[in-house]
C-alpha cells in the first residue's frame, strides 16, 4: 500500500467534497430528508446503529466507501480472517477471530488448523471452571475456593475486568472476583485485605509472562499466600497461569498442568475471549462464556459478509476517519448508558489507542495525516453532569458514540413516576437530539431570554453522534459489541495503512524503568540522565 494516502484520488475527492459540506448543519440535512433517521441506520449481530446524526450526505458516504475500496479493505479483511501474517513487524497472523470459531470449522496458520487447539483449551477451561464454581476444586487446606484474583495488566486485565463488570448480573455471586493490575502495591494490598488465603485462587494472566507489573504482583501474591499457608506445596492449589510462555510459567513455580495457553497470533488487547478470559468464565460459567464467544462470532460474520454500506464496523470506522482527518476532531467520546459498562471506555482506550496510535505506515514511512483518536468517556448519565457542557457548547468537535439497551437488567419502578430505565433512556435520546439540533438564537429570544444573556443560552448543535441500541445486555450482546469495536479499529488501521497489531511505543518506557529501578535503592551508580530526571531521582532517594 502506498504511503501517500492523501495523494490518492479517493482522498482528494473527499477533501474537495469536505470543502462543500463542512458547514452544512444537521438541521438542514434532516429537514431535507424526512426519512433520514430511518434510512441512515444499519443492523448486525443484534446491534442497531443509527448514524443519521452525522454530518454526512449520501455523497459523503459514497466517497468514504470508495476510499475503503481503494485502500483494499475487503482484501485486507479477508487476509486477516485467512490467517495471513498481516502483523508485519512481528511476523504474525492476527487471528483473534479464530478464538470464536465454532467447533468443527477450520482456520489455518502455517498449514495447521488452529480451531481444534482453541477448543481443547476452552474445554480445559470449562472443566476447571465447573470444578471451582461447584466447590470441587479445593485449596491446600481442603476448603473450596471462594475468591478469584486475576493478576495481569493491559490486555491481560482490561478485557476481563471490563467483561466481568459488564456481565456481573450473570455471575455466580458467592464467588468474589477481583482484578489486580497496578504495580503500586496498594492495588494488591487493598484487593486481598479481606480475603482468606485458604479460599483464594490467583490467576496469573500474562501473554509473555515477563511483564514487570504482573510478575511483581504474582511474587507478592505468592508471599501473601505463603505467609498464611506456610507450605510451598500450596502454590499448586492456589495459583494457575494463563500464558503463551510455558517455560516462564514453570520457572515461576506453577505446574503447567494448571496453565491455560494461547498463541502468538492473539494480540494482548484482542485476548479477552482467549484463556485470558478465565476469570470471567469462572464468574459467569462456561455456558455464559460460550454465549459471549457466539456474540463475537456473530459480529465477525457480519463484518466478513455484510456489504460495506451496511456493515457496522465499516461505517463506524469510516465515520471516524471523516471527523479525524477532515474535520480535525482529535477525540472520540464513548458514552455507555448502562452502569454495567462502566469499564468499557477504559477497555476501548487500549484497544483503539494501542492499535492505531502509530506514526509510520506498514512500509515504515512517516504518515502525513492524523491516525488514531484519543478515546475517552464514562457512563451516562453521570458524564452529563461533568463534561457534556464542553461537548455541547465548547469550541472542540467531539464525535460521540452513545450505547444503550432497550431492556434493563434491573427494572426499578419509581412510585408515581417513570421507571428508572425510562429516565435513563430519555436522557440518551435527549442528548443526541440536543447535540445534533441545538437551540438557535431566535429560539432563545422567543423564549423571552434577555438579549444580553441569550448568547450564553445558544446551542450551536451540529455535534455528531452515533447511537448503538441493543435489546438487552447479555454475554452475546457484549461479544458482538466488543467485536464491533475490534473491527472498527481494524478498518481505520487499513485506511491509515498502519500496523494495528504491534505496540513498540510502550517499550521505551519499560526499558528506562528497568534501568532506573536499579538506581533508586542506592546512591550508585552516578546518575547520567537529563538534569530533570536526575534531580527527581535524587529527591526521591533523599525522601523515600
Ligand atoms: O502495554 C503493553 C503490553 O504489551 C500490552 O500490549 C499487553 O496487553 C500488556 O502489555 C500485558 O502484556 P502481557 O500479557 O504479556 O503481560
UniProtKB/TrEMBL annotation:
Q: What is its main location?
A: cytoplasm
PROSITE patterns noted in UniProt: P_GLUCOSE_ISOMERASE_1, P_GLUCOSE_ISOMERASE_2, P_GLUCOSE_ISOMERASE_3
Which reaction equations make up its catalytic activity?
alpha-D-glucose 6-phosphate = beta-D-fructose 6-phosphate
The protein's UniProt keywords, in alphabetical order, are: Cytoplasm, Gluconeogenesis, Glycolysis, Isomerase
Q: Describe which pathway this protein belongs to, using the record's wording.
A: Carbohydrate biosynthesis; gluconeogenesis; Carbohydrate degradation; glycolysis; D-glyceraldehyde 3-phosphate and glycerone phosphate from D-glucose: step 2/4
Pfam families per UniProt: PGI
The protein's Enzyme Commission number: 5.3.1.9
What compartments host this protein?
Cytoplasm
Q: Which residues form the active site?
A: 354, 385, 510
Instruction: Recall the GO molecular function terms of this protein's record.
Output: isomerase activity
Q: Which family does it belong to?
A: Belongs to the GPI family.
Q: What does this protein do?
A: Catalyzes the reversible isomerization of glucose-6-phosphate to fructose-6-phosphate.
Write the protein's name.
Glucose-6-phosphate isomerase
Organism, scientific name: Deinococcus malanensis
**Source organism lineage?**
Bacteria, Thermotogati, Deinococcota, Deinococci, Deinococcales
Amino acid at each position: 500500500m502506498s504511503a501517500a494516502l492523501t495523494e490518492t484520488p479517493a482522498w482528494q475527492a473527499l477533501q474537495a467534497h469536505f470543502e462543500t459540506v463542512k458547514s452544512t448543519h444537521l438541521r438542514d440535512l434532516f429537514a431535507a430528508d424526512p426519512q433520514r433517521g430511518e434510512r441512515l441506520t444499519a443492523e448486525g449481530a443484534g446491534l442497531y446503529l443509527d448514524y443519521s446524526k452525522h454530518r454526512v450526505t449520501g455523497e459523503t458516504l459514497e466517497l468514504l466507501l470508495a476510499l475503503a475500496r481503494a485502500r483494499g479493505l475487503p482484501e485486507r479483511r479477508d487476509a486477516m480472517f485467512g490467517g495471513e501474517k498481516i502483523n508485519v513487524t512481528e511476523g504474525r497472523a492476527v487471528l483473534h477471530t479464530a478464538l470464536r470459531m465454532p467447533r468443527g470449522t477450520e482456520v489455518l496458520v502455517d498449514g495447521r488448523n488452529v480451531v481444534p487447539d482453541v477448543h481443547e483449551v476452552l474445554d480445559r477451561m470449562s472443566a476447571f471452571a465447573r470444578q471451582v464454581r461447584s466447590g470441587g476444586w479445593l485449596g491446600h487446606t481442603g476448603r473450596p475456593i471462594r475468591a478469584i484474583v486475576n493478576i495481569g495488566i493491559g490486555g491481560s486485565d482490561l478485557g476481563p475486568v471490563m467483561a466481568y463488570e459488564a456481565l456481573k448480573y450473570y455471575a455466580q455471586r458467592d464467588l468474589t472476583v477481583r482484578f489486580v493490575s497496578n504495580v503500586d502495591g496498594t492495588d494488591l494490598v487493598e484487593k486481598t485485605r479481606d480475603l482468606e488465603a485458604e479460599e483464594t485462587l490467583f490467576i496469573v494472566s500474562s501473554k509473555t509472562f515477563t511483564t514487570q507489573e504482573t510478575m511483581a504482583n504474582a511474587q507478592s501474591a505468592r508471599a501473601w499466600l505463603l505467609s498464611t499457608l506456610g507450605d510451598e506445596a500450596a502454590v499448586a492449589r492456589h495459583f494457575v497461569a494463563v500464558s503463551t510462555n510455558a517455560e516462564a510459567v514453570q520457572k515461576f513455580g506453577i505446574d503447567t498442568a494448571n496453565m491455560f495457553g494461547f498463541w502468538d497470533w492473539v494480540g494482548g488487547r484482542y485476548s479477552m475471549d482467549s484463556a485470558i478470559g478465565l476469570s470471567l468464565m469462572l464468574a459467569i460459567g462456561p455456558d455464559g462464556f460460550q454465549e459471549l464467544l457466539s456474540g463475537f462470532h456473530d459480529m465477525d460474520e457480519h463484518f466478513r459478509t455484510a456489504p460495506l454500506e451496511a456493515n457496522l464496523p465499516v461505517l463506524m470506522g469510516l465515520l471516524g476517519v471523516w471527523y479525524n482527518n477532515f474535520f480535525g476532531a482529535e477525540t472520540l467520546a464513548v458514552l455507555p448508558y448502562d452502569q454495567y459498562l462502566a469499564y468499557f471506555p477504559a477497555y476501548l482506550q487500549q484497544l483503539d489507542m494501542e492499535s492505531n496510535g502509530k506514526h509510520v505506515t506498514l512500509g515504515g514511512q512517516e504518515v502525513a495525516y492524523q491516525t488514531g483518536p484519543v478515546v475517552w468517556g464514562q457512563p451516562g448519565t453521570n458524564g452529563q453532569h461533568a463534561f457534556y457542557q464542553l461537548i455541547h457548547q465548547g469550541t472542540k468537535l467531539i464525535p460521540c458514540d452513545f450505547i444503550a439497551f432497550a431492556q434493563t437488567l434491573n427494572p426499578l419502578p419509581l412510585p408515581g413516576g417513570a421507571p428508572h430505565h425510562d429516565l435513563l433512556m430519555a436522557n440518551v435520546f435527549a442528548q443526541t437530539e440536543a447535540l445534533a439540533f441545538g437551540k438557535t438564537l431566535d429560539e432563545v429570544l422567543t423564549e423571552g431570554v434577555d438579549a444580553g444573556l441569550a448568547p450564553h443560552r445558544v446551542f450551536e448543535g451540529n455535534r455528531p453522534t452515533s447511537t448503538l441500541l441493543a435489546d438487552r445486555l447479555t454475554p452475546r450482546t457484549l461479544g458482538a459489541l466488543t467485536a464491533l469495536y475490534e473491527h472498527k479499529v481494524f478498518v481505520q488501521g487499513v485506511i491509515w495503512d498502519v500496523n494495528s497489531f504491534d505496540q513498540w511505543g510502550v517499550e521505551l518506557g519499560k526499558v528506562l524503568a528497568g534501568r532506573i529501578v536499579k538506581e533508586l535503592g542506592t546512591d550508585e551508580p552516578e546518575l547520567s540522565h537529563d538534569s530533570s530526571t536526575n534531580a527527581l531521582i535524587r529527591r526521591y532517594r533523599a525522601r523515600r
